[in-house]
Structures are given as C-alpha cells and as structure tokens.
Design a protein that fits this description.
Blueprint lengths: L1 E5 L1 H17 L3 E5 L7 H9 L4 E4 L2 H10 L4 E4 L8 H7 L2 E4 L2 H13 L4 E6 L14 H8 L5 E7 L12 H18 L5 E3 L6 H5 L9 E4 L1 H5 L17 E14 L26 E7 L11 E3 L5 E5 L4 E4 L12 E6 L1 H8 L5 E4 L1
Parallel strand pairs: 1-16, 2-3, 2-9, 3-4, 4-5, 5-6, 6-7, 7-8
Antiparallel strand pairs: 1-10, 10-11, 10-15, 11-14, 12-15, 13-14
Length: 357
C-alpha cells in the first residue's frame, strides 16, 4: 500500500505566512490548486483556510470548487479552448486570455448565461508561452473593452513556466508600464496587475516588486515553501506539507547488475555495464508497492538519507537499503519528501490513497 499524506498544520502555517506578507503589502492573491488534480478532500482543506480566490487550469476542478463553495472567486489560468467556452463562463468567474476571437465567444456565451465574465489579458514578456505581444497590446485592448458582458479585470504575465525566464524587478517594472500606457490611453483604471506565480515570492519578500503589481497566483510556494530563485526553503515555511509513504513488499540481497542479454526496459531505457564493473558486487534491495503509473522516481526524496532509489517499473520501485542503520522489514513504510512534479504525478494517480494528518 502506498499513500500520500497532507499535513494540515504545516499547510495552515504556510498559508498564514503568505497571507501576512501579501496583506502587509496590499497585494491580492489567489491559491493555485492545479497540483491537487481536483481531489475533493484536499480542496476542502484549501477552502477551510479562508481563501477567497482559487486558480486552476482545469475547468472540471473549478466546477468542484464552485460546488464546495459557490462564493469563492474562481480563475481559469490558461487561454480558454473553443470547446470549453460554455463551461468556463459557467464555472470560472475570471479567465486568462490572449485571443480576440476567444474573448468574443466568451462575450456571446456570457450574454446567453446573463453573466458578466471577467478576463485578464496576458502579455508575452519573454518566456514564450501564452501572451499578447507588447507592441500589439493597445490595439488588442481597444478591441476588447467594449464587448458586452466582458469586464477586463486586469493584465498579467507568466514567467518561468516554459523557457525559465525569471520575474526580475525589471520585468515587473515593464509590466507596470503597460498598465500606465493602457490607463493613459483609455482613461480607465485596471484593478489587477498580476505579476506571476510562486517564483515571484522572493522579490516580494525583498520588497523589490513595483507597487503597481498588486496580484499574484501562488501554488508551489504554499505547498513546498520553495524559493524558486535559490532552490532553498523560504525561512519560516515548511517544505513537507505533502509526504509519500510506500510499503516494502520484498527485501533481498541481490547483484548490483543485471544478468543476461540486455534490451530496453518498459520505460525504453537500456542498462549499460561498464567493462570495469565488479559483477560480484551485491546490495540489499527492497521493493516498494508503487511504480511509474503513479510517480517519477527523480522527483522523490527519501527521508532516510541513506536510502538510494535504484529504478522503477510500471508498478514497483526498487530501493537500495544497504547503507541505512535503520531496520526495515516486510511491511515497513518508507517515507519521501516530494518535489512539485513528484506530488503532481501522485495526486493524478487513482492508485495512491490521499489522507490528511
């Protein structure tokens, strides 16, 4: 048996830490829940924190949020697809947009549903994922702001999501300048300047963000307390809100190297044996009851630092326990801290039980 555990107190303390730093700086923020893959148990935990705004990239997840708490403002954080327009207007109060055609469809659907749908216009600022080009922004805005049943909630950008471009102070100043240009050109006020995701938290802590940037979307920092500039844990936050526990189902002393003619394994990898390898060497190996169907080994961090992950097949993972001083037996649980992608795979697996401490 393998299961994922969320530690409620650590989640609450991480949320409180972030909420304080944002409120002290008059910044609005929403929790990004796409990591949770729509898990109702964990969504309830997020809602119980007192959040007023939830962001997700799956409309089915926002539908669950609205069912659990209709008053929470829901935000769809990628450009809507044509096939999802009706559901996005129904379940997302706000959506991120980059195409005139899409916003026109949202306008028609919002009118049909007798709603006002809010949008954030995303601007391309170097990461080369979604976004309107800066030189086209004023023309784009002009075509949008008169559409019926559409309210422009703000402008925003995504950085560090595709090409790894960081949200530096210069980038956020540039975003602030776009706000000034639009407000001067059209004599309006833009409520949100959405400066990015968890990667921007270190700038906020250093008070290096321009005052005009007043909105952020936070997921990874909440769940992992991670400074994405340094890779370290932010002082005062927890990096282990989630932990994985997997049960040992076999322990045997085995050769370190495979025996026989070698071909590709199930993952498409081929094992290579160096000519200088000591083929007589053995190690004490344990097999855990989870595999590539559930996770990717490179994103798991054994809490016992003397355990080494060997590899995994579809349903089982092999670890080397030769160097540990702890006594493990059949049925012992091995615990792992997780990187973001490690948690994402596990939360998306129906075979991993989800629990709360």
């Amino acid at each position: 048996m393998a299961f994922l555990k969320l530690y409620r107190k650590k989640l609450q303390e991480n949320y409180s830490f972030l909420d304080i730093i944002f409120k002290e700086r008059n910044i609005e923020w929403g929790v990004v829940t796409k990591l949770l893959c729509g898990n109702t148990i964990y969504l309830k935990e997020i809602i119980s924190l007192g959040v007023t705004e939830i962001h997700d990239s799956r409309v089915s997840n926002l539908r669950k949020v609205k069912k659990l708490s209709p008053t929470i403002q829901t935000v769809y954080i990628k450009p809507p697809s044509k096939l999802n327009i009706e559901k996005i207007v129904q379940y997302a109060d706000v959506s991120f947009n980059t195409e005139i055609y899409t916003i026109q469809m949202l306008s028609k659907e919002a009118k049909r549903q007798n709603k006002t749908h809010k949008i954030v216009i995303m601007i391309e600022m170097g990461d080369l994922r979604e976004g309107v080009l800066g030189e086209e922004l004023l023309s784009f805005y002009e075509q949008v702001f008169s559409l019926p049943n559409i309210e422009i909630r703000g402008i925003g950008t995504n950085l560090n999501c595709l090409s790894g471009v960081m949200p530096t102070q210069d980038k956020l100043i540039q975003l602030s300048l776009y706000k000034q240009l639009i407000e001067a050109k059209f004599a309006i006020k833009i409520p949100w300047v959405s400066g990015g995701t968890s990667v921007a938290v270190p700038l906020i802590l250093k008070n290096a963000r321009p005052m005009a940037v007043n909105h952020f979307r936070i997921g990874e920092a909440l769940f992992f307390g991670k400074d994405l500039f340094t890779g370290e844990t932010i002082k005062g936050m927890h990096n282990d809100v989630f932990k994985l526990y997997a049960e040992i189902i076999e322990i045997t002393e085995k050769p370190d190297n495979p025996v026989g003619e070698l071909g590709e394994n199930v993952a498409g990898n081929t094992y290579e044996i160096d000519a200088n390898t000591d083929l007589s060497k053995t190690s004490l190996r344990a097999i855990l009851d989870l595999g590539l169907l559930d996770m990717q080994p490179q994103y798991l961090i054994p809490e016992d630092e003397n355990i080494t992950i060997v590899d995994a097949s579809s349903d089982m993972m092999v670890i080397d326990i030769s160097s540990t001083t702890r006594e493990y037996t059949i049925g012992s649980l091995i615990s792992f801290k997780l990187q973001y992608m490690g948690a994402l795979y596990l939360l998306n697996s129906d075979y991993i039980e989800k629990t709360i401490e």
